[in-house]
Specification:
40% of the residues lie in helices and 20% in strands. By secondary structure, it is α/β, with parallel strands linked by helices. The chain has two domains: 81 residues, Chemotaxis Receptor Methyltransferase Cher, domain 1; 192 residues, Rossmann fold, CATH 3.40.50.150. It binds S-adenosylmethionine.
């Protein structure tokens, strides 16, 4: 079967024609830099199909029209449906070991001496990444809150940011590489039978959560000593990725560190003033050409 000569997928309710898919892909790229893989069409159809149901729509064409009018709430759902929020505490442990090393080798002492220290978790999802960063920070600099030290945690998705801000997680899903790392984030004194556990209040104090679309202008100018943007750029097309890496390089302080996702790569790091210093880790060393 086809609509206007395009092959269609049968959803059981709404059908996603090739034309509709292309339109959705154009909207996703223009608004959020997202690159929709045609191979993921069935997944996209199923996830957005739920939105059609929620809005009582029977056609993807009508749904596209809602998004194109700029409906803020539906745009949220649209991006959420097209991306995944999967994350873990201390994901890619080697990155956090490098962060701690960096803090121990100088950043912590400089913060104690009054220097500004800024860390950014860009695309923080439900908060496991910034809380892990905060726990690493406190492991090296226990009285970090006394100094000009802050972690910025941003995501486009207000739903995950709400969870992040609450700092409350289902005990059975809060997995960690080691029990010691878990104790850094959650006080072991909490009720062992409780369904949910709370992150240590001291970690929360170090983090500011904000909504931010990474492909739009960033409302801050200061430099960051450490930026983590992991498993986010993977959704973006190559041109959007390239611009993003350049913008991170621009916002990094001299010698600052950038960490990216395990399946992401910066094609020619020196060209944008970055040098590889480990697995998916880069240091800002030289001025951009
Ligand atoms: C797979 S999670 C990664 C979480 C964490 N960084 C990690 O690696 O564990 C990807 C996150 O990127 C966010 N995201 C996707 N597109 C974005 C955009 N244009 N701006 C900001 N965040 C975005 C999603 O909402 C999602 O929470």
């Amino acid at each position: 079967m086809s609509i206007e000569g395009s092959p269609i997928l049968d959803t059981g309710e709404a059908q996603l024609s090739e034309d509709d898919f292309q339109r959705i892909a154009r909207i996703a790229k223009a608004g959020w830099g997202l690159n929709l893989d045609p191979a993921k069409k069935p997944l996209i159809r199923s996830r957005l199909g739920r939105r059609l149901k929620a809005l009582n729509l029977t056609e993807f064409k009508a749904y596209c029209a809602v998004i194109e009018t700029g409906d803020a709430t539906e745009s949220e759902h649209f991006v959420s449906a097209l991306t995944t929020n999967v994350t873990h505490f201390y994901r890619e442990l080697h990155h956090f070991e490098m962060v701690e090393d960096e803090l121990a080798k100088g950043l912590a002492a400089r913060a104690k001496a009054g220097e500004r220290l800024r860390i950014w978790s860009a695309g923080c999802s439900s908060g496991q990444e910034p809380y892990s960063l905060a726990a690493s920070l406190i492991a090296v600099l226990p009285d970090a809150a006394r100094y000009d030290v802050k972690i910025l945690a941003t995501d486009i998705d207000l739903g995950v940011l709400k969870t992040a801000q609450a700092g409350r997680y289902e005990a059975k899903t809060a997995a960690f590489p080691t029990p010691q790392l878990k104790d850094r984030v959650f006080d072991p004194g909490q009720d062992p039978d409780a369904r949910d556990i709370n992150v240590r209040p001291g970690l929360k104090k170090l983090i500011t959560f904000r909504r931010l679309n990474l492909v739009q202008p960033w409302p801050f100018a200061g430099q960051f000593q450490i930026v983590m943007c992991r498993n986010v750029a993977i959704y973006f097309d190559k041109a959007t990725q390239k611009t993003l890496w350049e913008r991170f390089s621009d916002i990094l302080a001299p010698d600052g560190l950038l960490f990216i996702g395990h399946s992401e790569r910066i094609p020619n790091p020196p060209e944008i003033g970055l040098n590889p210093v480990g697995i998916t880790s880069y240091r800002k060393t030289i001025a951009k050409n």
